[in-house]
Amino acid sequence: MGNSSSTPTGLCDTVLTEKATDLLTSSSVIPYLLISKCREILVIAFSDVEGVRFQSTFIGSAAIAGILPVSALQITDKSGVTSQDALKKNSIEVTEEHLQQLRYDPKSVWGYVKIHIEQGPVLEWVGFPLGVVKGIAGQTRLKVTMRGSQGHAGTVPMSMRHDPMAAAAEAIVLLESLLQVTFTVDLRAIDDMGREAVVCELSPIVSNM
């Protein structure tokens, strides 16, 4: 099984899945196993796995697993188009009844193989052409709003400030997956030497974080 998308990643996964299936069915051993065990090979290409358009991940695989809620059909993209309308535009009619029909009985599935590029540097770094993962990472997306109040940077005492950026900074420290953040620092003080001393002390600390 692979991802279907317009990106090189999705296309590579889909083509590789088809090639692997051709190899399996042309082998003298695999067909015997499939026939003797009454097994069949199904190739399924999931679209928009990352949830880029509808901001909801794993829609296709969730439907097959039988855990996709009916409400997912009414999720809209930035243009206000629902996922159900998008499917209908591509000649796919999906209703609550159809969702139930998409569900696979776990007992009927002999195995599941997911092909994907690594999207990371580890295999290349260790010199391995292939890796086998222990599972597929799930996703949770959160939109966090830090609320505070405006105040003049030079006249409002620190004890009276309610700066949402300070709270956001604490949250950012916890997000190890956040690779890069660009922000500005506004330092003000009557004593120029004191302000410059803070900059000199802050710079190497930030550089080593």
Structural account:
It is a single chain. The chain has about 210 residues and is mainly alpha-helical. It has a two-stranded parallel ribbon. The longest helix is centred in the N-terminal third of the chain and has 19 residues. It is elongated and about 80 Å long.
List the defining traits of the structure above.
209 residues, mainly alpha, two-stranded parallel sheet, 8 helices, disordered N terminus
Q: Helices and strands in order, then pairings?
A:
Blueprint: E1 2-4, H1 8-26, H2 30-36, E2 45-47, H3 59-65, H4 83-89, H5 96-102, H6 122-126, H7 164-174, H8 192-207
Summarize this, please?
The chain has 209 residues and is mainly α. It has helices at residues 8-26, 30-36, 59-65, 83-89, 96-102, 122-126, 164-174, 192-207; strands spanning 2-4, 45-47.
